[in-house]
Amino acid sequence: MSKLTCFKAYDIRGRLGDELNVDIVYRIGRAFGQFLKPKTIVVGGDVRLTSKELKSAVTNGLLDSGVNVIDLGEVGTEEVYFATSFLNADGGIEVTASHNPMNYNGLKLVRAGSRPISADT
User: Fold this and answer.
1) pLDDT of 63-119, one tens digit each?
2) Which domain holds residue 98?
């Protein structure tokens, strides 16, 4: 992976092994914790076969940066957004590639109040 093409306007997604892998997802989790300095983040993942492994990687990155993680389990994006606001968390991360093929996966990240993370953040 010589070029990070997985970063999109409002999410991170790409072909597994080619554009996205466990190491990159771990680093994203760690950077999220170090850059935004949240106290508590909710994390969930969709039903894709790779979501559990990627959710573990992003969780470990968050934990290694000192963030408290609330694991929502296997949930949809809307549930992560709801839990972020309802639990007054400082942000949320959903492991999903939405409508993309099964060989893709990704992350949707939000700040407190379920506000999207984008290039402007």
Assistant:
1) 999 999 999 999 999 999 999 999 999 999 999 988 888 899 999 999 999 998 866
2) 21-114
Question: Distance between CA 88 and CA 45 in Å, rounded?
Answer: 19
What pTM does this model have? Answer: 0.91
Count of structural domains within the chain = 1
The answer to whether 98 is a known catalytic residue is yes
Q: Which of 2, 51, 98, 118 is catalytic?
A: 98
Q: What is the CATH number of the domain that holds 34?
A: 3.40.120.10
**Is 51 inside a domain boundary?**
yes
In a domain, residue 4? The reply is no
15 in a domain, yes or no?
no
The closest alpha carbon to 30, from 4, 1, 2, 57, belongs to 57
pLDDT tens per residue, range 19-63: 889 999 999 999 999 999 999 999 999 999 999 999 999 999 999
Range list of H helices, 20-111? 22-36, 51-64, 77-86
Has residue 57 been placed in a domain?
yes
